Amino acid sequence: MNIVLLGAPGAGKGTQSERLVKEYGIPHISTGDILRAAVAEGTKLGKKAKGYMDAGELVPDDLIIDLMSDRLAQPDAAKGFILDGFPRTTAQAAALDAALAANGRSIDCALAIEVPFEVIIKRLSSRRVCRQCGHAGTEEETVCPSCGGEMYQRDDDREETVRNRLAVYEKSTAPLIDYYAGAGVLVRVDGNRPVDEVYADTKAAIDRD
Ligand code: AP5
After folding, report:
1. What pLDDT, in 10s, does the model give residues 72-109?
2. How far, in Å, from the CA of 14 to the mean position of ligand 1?
3. Residue 103, class by beta-carbon neighbours within 10 Å (0-12 exposed, 13-18 middle, 19+ buried)?
4. Are 49 and 85 in contact (CB under 8 A)?
C-alpha cells in the first residue's frame, strides 16, 4: 500500500501516521523528520535546509527529490509506505510518480486532511514534540506519553512562521489536491474532529482500495 498524506502544516499528518504505522506495518516517511535530524546532526543537507525551514519556506525541490529517491529505494519501502510532507510541489509529485512507475508501482491513496487555518494556528502554538520518537502532543505533556522522552517546541511553530507556512502551503502544495484527484486516488478527510474520528475515516479510505 503506497499512501500519501496531504494536508496543511498542523493538519494532523504525523498524528494519523503514528496510528497507520501500527495498523499496516509499513514505514512512516516524513521529509520534515528527516530534515530536522539532518539539521540536528549538522550534515551538509541540514546546513542547506536550515534557513528555509526556520523561515517556513520549502527546501528546494532538487534536494528533496534526491533525498527521497534514496529513501524510497531502501528495502523497508518495498512493501509500501506512508509519505508525510512529501510531495509538496507538482515537481516533487511528478518525480515520485516517475520513480514508482520505473518499478511498476504507483500511489494507491492520497488523503487530504482538511482543517481550517485558524484551528491550525491554535494547534501549532500549543504543539510540543518528543525529541526521541517524534510524537506530537500538546503543551500539557511535559514528558512523552509514548517513550518518556523530552517534549520541546519546534522553532517553526511560532505564529508568524506558521502563517508563512500556511501561505506557502496554499501556493505550492494545495494544487496537489487536484493532481491526485486527476489520478483518481484522492480522498478528502475532515480533520477538524477528534483524532479517533479522523483516524476511522482515514482507515476506511485506505481499506476501500
Ligand atoms: P514538516 O515537518 O513536514 O511540517 P508540516 O507539513 O508543516 O507538518 P507538521 O509536522 O507541522 O504538522 P502535521 O500535519 O504532521 O500535524 P501533527 O500531527 O503534528 O515540514 C517542516 C519544514 O520542512 C517545512 O516547512 C519545509 O521547510 C521543510 N520540508 C518538509 N518537507 C518538505 C518537502 N517535501 N519539500 C520542501 N520542504 C520540505 O499535529 C499538529 C498538532 O495538532 C499536534 O499538537 C497534535 O497533537 C494536534 N492534533 C492532531 N490531530 C488533531 C485532532 N484531530 N484534533 C486536535 N488536535 C490534533
Report:
1. 999 999 999 999 999 999 999 999 999 999 999 999 99
2. 6
3. exposed
4. no
The three grid cell numbers given for residue 49, joined into one nine-digit string: 535546509
pLDDT of residue 208: 85
Please give the distance, rounded to the nearest whole angstrom, from the Cα atom of residue 157 to the centre of ligand 1: 10
88 close to 164: Cβ distance less than 8 angstroms: no
The one-letter code for the residue type at 157 is: D
Q: How many helices (H) and strands (E) does the chain have?
A: 9, 8
Domains (range + CATH), the chain? 2-208 (3.40.50.300)
CA 75, distance to chain mean position in Å, is 21
pLDDT at 93: 98
Q: Tell me, yes or no, if 165 is annotated catalytic.
A: yes
Helix axes 117-125, 159-168, angle to 10 degrees: 140
pLDDT, tens digit (0-9, with 9 covering 90-100), for 105-156: 999 999 999 999 999 999 999 999 999 998 999 999 999 999 999 999 999 9
The owner of cell 506557502 is 168
Residue 75 Cα to ligand 1 midpoint, Å, equals: 26
- From atom 30 of ligand 1, which residue's Cα is the shortest distance away? 32
- Residue 1's closest CA among 110, 92, 97? 110
Residue 95 is predicted with a pLDDT of: 97
